[in-house]
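Reminder: ligand-aware prediction takes two inputs, not one.
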Amino acid sequence: MRILVLGSGAREHAIVKALLAEEAGHEITAVPGNAGIAAEVETVRFDASNPVLVADYAKEYGAELVVIGPEAPLIAGVADRVRMLGIPVFGPSKDAAQLEGSKAFAKRVMAEAQVPTGQATRAASLDELETALDVFGAPYVVKADGLAAGKGVIVTSDRDAAVDHARFYLQQGQVLVEEHLRGREVSLFLLSDGHDVLPLSPAQDYKRAFDGDEGPNTGGMGAYSPLPWLQPQWETEADFVDEVIDTVARPVIRLLEAEGTPFVGLLYCGLMITDAGIRVIEFNARFGDPETQVVLARLETPLSELMLAAATGGLARLPYPRFRPDAAVSTVLASAGYPENPVAGRQLIGLDRVRDVIVDHAATALVEDRWIVSGGRVLSVVGVAPTFTAAREKVYAALGELELEGSFYRRDIAAAVAASERAASEDAGSESAGSESVESESAESESADQGGGGPA
Ligand code: AMP
Ligand code: GLY
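Here is what comes back for the chain with glycine:
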């Protein structure tokens, strides 16, 4: 198949690798891609968010499938323009992508589809905002309505900080004040053909910059999959996934279909598992980064078949995608100063020494034969192994080989889940072993006082 992949991050590198791993002879081109992607497939540099440029190129290229990685092209209407040419597109229309592009739109859809989410009120002025803050109480959750590159959300007990955040975003439109949800976060990706959905395997993301969930929010510093701690609350992963499909994904997809804005592509459900049950924190209209790197590393079903079926209304015919039972862990190598002021232009040394992991590039450039870093999240290192302990060892051994002045990465990705796994195997035979240390992993989502967001 001739496949055009839009985007330039580690997520898109992981998508390209999954397509190549099928060994199906696909011809793949990435726009604009990155240096890591360019080492594997053809890349063409132009603005992937320009609907006319993309549609013209897709036609000229003879694309049989266009895969849209990031949200910007979706919000810009790239999928609509390409679909008008009759080319299958994995990625929702501009209207359906409002599920990610507008928090108010997402809240309205959830209310009408009776999907469980935090209570929220809209505020259009500081007066309305202050009233809402008093109604909900601390910790306060204030969200900008539109896309804000991950910076639109603040979770804080500091009322003045909440008001300041709102004051800034009120200049651009309404803000949402939301009930604070307490629990553990899960990212669940579902393929949608506009009517039916198929689930991928759940993952956990680490949003804060530093170990122990300290520091500013980022686009994501690491992830792991699967999530053994879903048990025993759900007997199997499929039970959890089916509950999300029944209570969240299918109702939303059917409502959008009924409204004439079918959602075709990847529905990213950002969920909080609270004591009262599953609640939606947010939807995204595309794969998450860095969760995709771990989820696709475990996928056994050919990705192109899933995406093409989604793009052409054929998901009902397919069984659930298969995943290898192995543990996958990804850790992001970040440039000095990320997320506020990432330093670019420094040389990355040691890639040739890295063994036994997948390296998904994000912000690298090949200048002559030197790898030069061009942004904040430089690359993801992904380890896959029968246990989380072994997967982590691979990841951290590989990161130990890399030299980049001032760079950093989190050392605690999947640490708690690996510790639980070791405790369970030492204590094999004892029924409760698998769930004992579940709570320790949840510092990120349990913390009541989080700062503002960071760049995605
Ligand atoms: P979002 O951009 O909506 O994903 O929000 C960014 C992060 O803020 C989420 O991943 C959560 O960690 C946190 N967050 C968002 N909404 C809530 C909420 N209602 N309660 C608690 N934490 C939240
Ligand atoms: N990792 C969070 C996101 O992709 O939005």
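The pocket of glycine (ligand 2) is lined by residues 205, 219-220, 284, 288-289, 291, 456 (CB under 6 Å). The longest strand covers residues 264-274. We will return to this case in the review session.
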